[in-house]
Amino acid sequence: MNDLAPLLTPEGRALLDDVRGTAPADELAVATRLRREHPAELVSAALGQARLRQRAVAKFGAEDAERMFFTPNGVEQSTRASVAAYRAHRLKGLGVSSVADLCCGIGGDAIALARAGIRVLAVDRDPLTAAAARANADALGLAGLIDVREADVTEVDTAAYDAVFVDPARRGGRGRIFDPEAYSPPLSWAVQTALKAPHAALKVAPGIPHEAVPAQAEAEWISDGGDVKEAVLWFGGTAPGAVRATLLPGPRTLLGRGLPDPEVRPVGRYLYEPDGAVVRAHLVAEVAQEVEGGLLDSTIAYVTSDALHPTPYATAYEITDQLPFNVKKLKALLRERGVGILTVKKRGSAVEPEELRRKALPKQHGPHSATVFLTRVAGAPTMLIGAPARAVTGAGPS
Prior knowledge:
The protein is of the alpha/beta class. The protein has 13 helices and 18 strands. The protein has helices spanning 10-19, 27-34, 40-60, 62-65, 72-77, 81-93, 108-115, 127-139, 187-195, 276-280, 284-290, 327-337, 353-360, and strands at 98-102, 119-124, 146-150, 163-166, 171-172, 175-176, 199-204, 218-224, 227-235, 243-248, 252-255, 270-274, 294-295, 303-305, 314-324, 339-346, 368-377, 380-388.
C-alpha cells in the first residue's frame, strides 16, 4: 500500500468498517466476497489496514486504533500512547504551548501533544507517513491543533515554537541502529537543534551509552508496565546532567543522587529486582539505599536485604533457598516442595529459562509455585529460590 487516499474515500471507509476485526483465518473468504463489488487493490489495502489496526491496539488502545491509519513501520516505531501522554504532560508543565515535532511518523506523539492542548507542527519527509499523520489528526478531531508538513526536518525553521521534539529513525535496512550518530537524522544534529530551542526533548534508544548523553541534557529512562520503552534527553527548564527513571503507570520518578556503587554482601532474606528503567538509568544504588541493601555481585543488578521495604522501583522476593547451580538438586527441591509452576529469572547467566524449566520441573507437578533466580553471588553461579513478597510489590510512594 503506497497511497492512503483510496481508503479515505467513502467507499474505502465503508470497506474499513466492513473488514474491522477480521481474523487472519477468515481473510481469504472475506477478500473473495468483497472483490465481487470492490476493486481488488482497495480490498487488499483495507484488509492490510485492518491488520495494522489490530497490531496497533497494544500501543494506542482499541478506541483510537480502530479510527487511525497506519503504515507497517508506523506501528512498529510509534511511541506507546501512555508514554507519549506522559511526555506531553511534562512539556505542558514546562509552560510549552507549541511544539515542532520532527520525524513525526504516523503522528502518535503529535496526537498526545495536541490532546494536552499544545499546538503542533508535525514534520516527516516520507509522503505516505505524512499522509497517515494528517489522516490521524483528522480522524481524532485534532486537525485544528496539528499542522502536518511533508519536508526534510533538517530544513524546517523551528524558531517560532516553544519546544522541539525529535524522534529520529533508529531502524535501517538491517534492523535496529545502535550508534546514535547513525540515527536519521544523527543525534549530533538533534542536539544542536535542541540547544537552539527554549525547550527540547529528544527520544533515543534506551540502550544509549551514558557517555553519549550531552552534558547539557537531563537523561530520563521510561518504562511502562515494567517494560523499558525509551530514553529521553531533555533540554531547557531541567537540570543539566540529571538522571531519572520514570515508571508508568503513575508516574513514579526516581531521581539520581550520585550515590557510589553499593557494596556486595551475602544473600539476605529478600531479593529486590529493580525495574528496567532503574537499571538502564544506573540508579540501582538509589534502590539499594532505600531498602537498606547491597548487591549479590558487583556486576549484577540484583539487590539483597534482610528487611522488607516498600518501593515502587523494584519487585521484592522472599528467598527460601540458595544453591550452587545444579539442575538435579533444583529438581529434587522442587519435587520436595510440590512445585508445579516455576518462574525462571536470570541476570548474569547463559542458561535459557525455558530449557531450565523443562529439565527442572518434576513429571508429577505439584500445586505450588516458585521463582528461581539464575545469577552470580560474589562471582559464583548460583540459584536462589523464593516467591514474591506481596507486601512490597507495587507499593510505595511516588
